[in-house]
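Collaboration report, partner site 2.

Our partner group contributed sequences for two proteins of shared interest, and the home lab folded both. The records are reproduced in the order in which they were received, starting with the first partner submission.
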Amino acid sequence: MVFIITTLRRIGREITASIFEFCFLVFLFSWDISLTLINVLTFKRKVGRVTPKGHPGEGGIWPEYIPPKPGDSRCGCPALNAMANHGIISRDGRNISFRDLSRKVGETFNISPTFCIYVPRYAAHILNRSYNSGRFDLSDVDAHNGIEHDASLVRRDTYLQNDQGPPDGQLVASLLKCATGPPPQIQATASYSPLPSSDSPYFDVAVHVAKALADFDMNRTLTATDLSRRLGVRRPESRRDNGQYSLDFRHKIFGSANGSTMLTVFGGCVPDLYTFLVEERLPDGWESRARDRMGLTMFSFTRVSLRIEFGVKEEVDQPLNLM
């Protein structure tokens, strides 16, 4: 009898959760489409006024940048690491509220509220925590094949480097060197940065990238085609070097989404991306290139992600594995 009651309760809980999730996502995506339409019909935010008044980064003035200290928590996401390095979220990268993260990501990068709810809530569910009341350390986000995935543009696979906190200098340099786009439409706020101090955890990365880009013209932009081409190189590299390589379609989209961030939020601007990816710092005077009135929506972001993903020619060149 106890077995039957337990079974029925579990089935009931699963049905209830599934119905709620379906209704919630319908609501969220409908809201997102509405915000997208408002963005189409309204003027963009003025250059210099993208970050809300009274919030960190207003007028391009960001809180003091302090690289992580030993014992601080960092992850494979440069955006979250940069927010911690500037003290927008806790500097040690620990005990962060999912709901608080949603609000601060939106203010920092001009992301729509729908997008800011969806991604942290997704991360909370991967970690089996509550979006409403749960907390996390940045390193928790690196649970393998949750959001973190193989064949990243700027990190080695977990199989090769368990600590996903620091970027890989060789990968960052290769990514930036593949840029073929014209000079940025909005003037870059960062120049070819001097090396950080030798005690910075980013020093070795910066040295490698500086040497690799010594003769490279930084006054250009990354394009969707550049990112497709770079992913087409990274995935075979990862498959070759990683004995536990796995990358399903969902995680391929995550990889393309990382590239979409570089185009939508940073405008593909190589000097700004250099500072962001090497030191995980927001350049002085920088503001999000996503200037939509209601913030960058999931619909607009995904459109760019899919353009990158379906431009990866290598995906159709390899044999089709049916068995």
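Second partner submission, folded after the first:
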Amino acid sequence: MPIGDMTALMALFGTGAVVMRGAGCTINDMWDVDFDKKVERTKTRPIASGLITRPKALAFLGLQLSAGLAVLLQLNPYTILFCFGSMPLVVIYPFMKRITYWPQLVLGLAYNWGALAGWSAVAGGIDWTVALPLYAAGVSWTLVYDTVYGHQDKRDDIAAGVKSTSLLFGDHTKVVLSGFSASTIGLLCLSGYMNGNGLPFYLTVAGAGTAHLIWQLKRVDINSPPVCWRIFKSNAWFGAIILGAILADLAYDRLSAADASDGSDASDGQPK
């Protein structure tokens, strides 16, 4: 794919991600208004505090979904239909914390749908041998960062009856998240292998990516909300590392192709 087309598609997906994650937050706040009032960190949210009424929130959600639809309609028909499959996950996620200690799993399934949709938008279909490990890696990563996030509110969550992997893993959180971190790196490398990625991808993911996740688990204090918040936010750097791995591999591939082309041209110019 030409660089210009790739950049335009990334911008489109970036816009869609911001809009639809915002819509997910609105849905979550509408579902959880009673819970949010009981949690110190969330009781000042607009709906929970009474700053915005539910009808106004619903109207705002309509605007967000309309903007998301406008972005979606720029994609091919297969991707448009496929993306609608994520909506049930977005809607039911807030309800999951009422019935299971694994709401973060449902969140991961919803949040990482874009990994599948991105492949579809480029190819008009999905190569599951590549996209499924990538999707699973994203889900595993979500379990890491959102479990850390959930530890901020665990005392209030217990009182409010909210369930989470943070409460499920408890004092074993670091051990369990070490496993999910390892699976994140392993699945990313598997996806790269199935896609035929080169050495720059593996070096960056397995090197810098692993180092960052290890740093997170060493630094996090699950009993300190401010530390949990800082470690949660640091996952933006992990995302940047993975993006860097992809771009480095793309640049390496393009340079290798250019060198091969130059070598072929030079060979053709030699006397027979």
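Feedback sent to the partner group on the second submission included the following. Residues 174 and 217 are 6 Å apart (CA to CA). The mean pLDDT is 91.
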